[in-house]
Write a structure and sequence with these properties.
Layout: H1 7-21, E1 29-34, E2 42-49, E3 57-60, E4 78-85, E5 93-94, E6 100-103, E7 110-117, E8 126-128, E9 132-135, E10 143-144, E11 152-156, E12 165-168, E13 171-172, E14 178-181, H2 184-188, E15 192-195, E16 198-203, E17 216-223, H3 227-248, E18 258-265, E19 272-275, E20 279-284, H4 291-306, H5 333-350, H6 356-372, H7 381-386, H8 388-391, H9 402-405, H10 409-428, H11 434-446, H12 462-473, H13 476-487, H14 495-500, E21 504-508, E22 514-515, E23 521-524, E24 527-530, H15 539-542, E25 550-554, E26 557-558, H16 562-571, E27 577-583, E28 589-595, E29 597-598, E30 602-606, H17 616-626
Helix pairs in contact: 3-4, 4-5, 5-6, 5-10, 6-10, 11-12, 12-13
The chain binds zinc ion.
Zinc ion (ZN) is lined by residues 275, 303, 307, 337, 340.
Amino acid sequence: MLAGMGKRFLGALVLVFVASSAWAQGQAIEYKLSFPSPEHRWMQVEVRFPQVPAGTLQVRMARTSPGRYALHEFAKNVFDVSIVNGRGQPLAAARPDLHQWDVAGHDGTVVVTYRIFGDRTDGTYLGIDSMHAHINIPAALMFARGWFERPARVTFVQPPGKSWKVATQLFPTPDPLVFTAPNLHYLMDSPTDFSAFTLRTFTVDDGQKRTGPPPTFRIALTHDGTEAEADAYAKDVERIVREAINIFGELPAFETNTYTFLSVYLPWASGDGMEHRNSTSLTGAGALRNPQQRQGMLGTVSHEFFHAWNMERIRSRGIEPFDFEQADVSDDLWLGEGFTSYFDGLILERAGLMTMDGLLGDLAGMINAVTLSPGRRIRSAIDMSRLAPFVDAAASIDRTAWQNTFISYYTYGSAIGFGLDLELRARTNSKVSGDDFMRGLWAAFGKPGQKEPGKVATPYTIDGLKETLAKVSGDRGFANDFFAKYVEGRDLVDYGGLLARAGVVVRRRAAGRAFAGQVQLQPGGSALRVGSQVPFDSPLYKAGVAQDDQLTSLDGTELASTSAYEEALGRIKAGATVPIRFVRRGGEVVNTTLTLEEDPRIELVPIEKTGGTLTDDQRRFRESWLSSPKR
Ligand SMILES: [Zn+2]
């Protein structure tokens, strides 16, 4: 057929072929998702693998999901599996493990059908009922090993009597129920909500030169509230989007030029936010009508949208490409999750959606956590990140020592991000900030490295992060020192000294008050049961108190209630040694002494609320930090 064509024409054809094969190789895998009785919480899946090379096709369910680090057993919800060839003749499958079906003897086509149960609405699992199907793809769709460069086509079949719509980052086709993915990496990253959602859209022009129109933001909202609540939510989501752009200077180039918020707020939804390349799954049991719950929802919106840059495009080499069979381990979740946690609050405050006092309260809680947790004496932020497969939505039925040996990389990383932002500002009279560091990472790793949808071409390593900080700060020594002390090491920045520059006072929140250690105490009968691990080296720990012990008296006060315990602590002087009696879980009664410390927990207070005066320098520092940069 090519014979006889002019050379020039042939050249053009080859170019077209190269351009499309860079995205996709081979015929599309066809998925058909049907919901014959969604009220029973299962769906029917048909997967057609075409052009199967001779030999065994290894069909699998994933064990991981992008943004989730613990292993999951998604295959457990699969049942009624049948496998046929292209002529509909049954094929036998070997099962080398619980997650895999090995199909041999096919005719170049393999069609797998199965049912899958799912009753958890969140960003990780599959949630189906008579209102919607909230589908995290790795939890629902089988894939074939080695087929990740193949395109996919997904068809949704309406449940009987419904006229649901599809919200997804998948590529649209003229048929509103048919979508495509250029490769399986992209398909796996594309959560989809199939329901009668409320739709709100807006566009944001970030001022960058682009060939087409500015991107469209879609909010697919499923909730039990009003249209007015949906309108107000959409308005606040738009404020968050605009404020995040102020940090990075521009929007990422969203594939299909859209970004979709899959927002599901229903009483039975599980609290979760999960980032994806051009969308996010936001779920929870709260309601928009409840101001406190709404504030939490907006915090998650801010967090997940920040991930469109920091995680989805500025991405650690440890999780790129994502492995769907093994736990994905990264050294860098202190940056991916932690810095995102720091900036999500800052964005809300700058956008006018959180007060300065609210932000300072959150920052104080974070400082208290990293300062007091014994985990920091054991592990660095990098070490904490590597533990993600053990702690991120990981279920363990045995007790662990995490309360003493682990600090969440969200919290720890947030403390590092906060420290870096203030350090940079303090060193440069606010000319350079944490915003600039994020912008530097975007320029180095996010923006240039995007060639194929669903993939990051230039993931970073820790050396690249150091290099970027050296460049942004103009001081290589500072960059190396910062990483050595606070990221690879276990030091904490001098929050008090740095916050003073912003006219914020760090002070003990209960100065002089006696403190025995942070534990949960559960009243029951005439004693208080210790309901959590006792922090290493705390006064209670030194007195020999452990989890499940019953505290019966402190300094002569019978401990029949937590208020009796608090009153006793209020009476005792910090530093004093007093008698304590408790019963170990084996029944042994212990009479000993407890030496109390001063409550070390701090609060952050604007200097003007402490009777002091805010200087002009402090006001300028604070405004630069907490006000929208409006570049
Ligand atoms: Zn996150």
